[in-house]
Design a protein that fits this description.
The structure is a single chain. This protein has about 300 residues and is of the alpha/beta class. The chain has helices spanning about 10-25, 85-100, 120-130, 165, 175-185, 195-205, 205-215, 215-225, 230-250, 255-280, 285-290, 295-310; strands spanning about 30-40, 45-50, 70-75, 110-115, 130-135, 140-145, 150-155. It has a 7-stranded mixed β-sheet with strand order 1-2-3-4-7-6-5, with helices on both faces. The longest helix has 27 residues, at about 255-280. About 35% of the residues are buried.
């Protein structure tokens, strides 16, 4: 009986951390980001803590207008809902954080972020708590009436222009959405990694990746090239290209032959890496990949290890 492939766990929280840092990168000089801030002991951990280092600086970003000194985030992945119990867990974390640090009660904000519609949570705020809830921007709900400023972010409703990183963090991307993200990828901030983000998107949207691979090879390779590929695999293709270029140059006596060979080698090296990454995401056995692309098991496993480290 054939073995059933174990479904790969997607590290959405690491992807969210990449996304929120990209969203707020314009303010990186006044914000300090902490992922999984530990509270006292296990299992109490804040998903993301953002410290605003300069109180007198205004942040105009739609998802950060409520920011004060200590901004506590709870993130729910596309398969999860932002429930009432999740909110009170976040609230409890805020109270514990307040107890552990010498800060003012008025210096804390709470943010819940998720893909799904937070209808039940919003109704709870209005009907059970008597809070006022206003959608100040598409997908951004500000909650008034509690001692802590609170906001709930429905990421799939966010502006594709202003919040492309969070809006795209989902498992139901369309071709046009992924294409827009690819075009925007050149604007990433160099000090902010997006490796975990890309890995989560590719793994969660394998169907659309397959479609894009078949329809638009250039876009597929562009996206996959976002991973930090193992140098040996890229170099293998480059070296083959250099040798072909030298031989062609010797035979035809043209400098163009050498340069063309080099360029083809670079493209072949990156394309080989892209194909291997694609097979790894589909969880094709390492040995089968090595045989299919006529490379070594060691090189394929090296690339698989690098991908796992980047998403860790």
């Amino acid at each position: 009986m054939p073995k059933t492939k174990k479904k790969e766990r997607i590290d959405w929280h690491s992807a969210f951390y990449d996304a929120i840092r990209q969203e707020l990168a314009d303010y990186s000089d006044i914000l300090h980001f902490e992922r999984e801030h530990q509270l006292n002991s296990e299992p109490f951990r804040i998903d993301v803590l953002i410290i605003k280092k300069q109180a007198d600086v205004t942040i105009n970003k739609n998802i950060a207008k409520i920011f004060r000194g200590c901004n506590i985030f709870e993130y729910k992945n596309p398969k999860e809902t932002m429930g009432v119990k999740d909110f009170y867990k976040l609230y409890g974390y805020a109270c514990l954080y307040l107890n552990l640090h010498d800060i003012s009660l008025l210096d804390i904000t709470l943010t819940m972020v998720g893909t799904r519609n937070p209808r039940k949570l919003i109704n709870h705020f209005i009907k059970q708590c008597g809070y006022r809830v206003n959608e100040t921007d598409p997908g951004v709900y500000q909650v008034e009436g509690n001692i802590f400023p609170i906001q709930v972010i429905e990421s799939k409703k966010l502006s594709k222009d202003e919040n492309i990183w969070l809006e795209s963090l989902r498992d139901d991307l369309k071709v046009e959405g992924l294409s827009k993200l690819l075009k925007f990828k050149g604007n990433i901030y160099p000090d902010v990694s997006i490796q975990a983000y890309l890995y989560a998107l590719v793994t969660a949207n394998i169907g659309i990746i397959e479609e894009m691979k078949n329809l638009d090879k250039k876009s597929f390779l562009e996206m996959i090239s976002g991973f930090e590929l193992v140098d040996e695999i890229k170099e293998e293709g480059r070296e083959e290209g250099r040798e072909e270029g030298r031989e062609e140059g010797r035979e035809e006596g043209r400098e163009e032959g050498r340069e063309e060979g080099r360029e083809e080698g670079r493209e072949e090296g990156i394309e080989l890496s892209a194909k291997i990454i694609y097979e790894l995401i589909k969880q094709t056995p390492v040995g089968d990949i090595a045989e299919k692309y006529k490379t070594t098991v060691q090189k394929v496993d090296q690339l698989r290890t690098a991908m796992m480290q980047e998403s860790a």
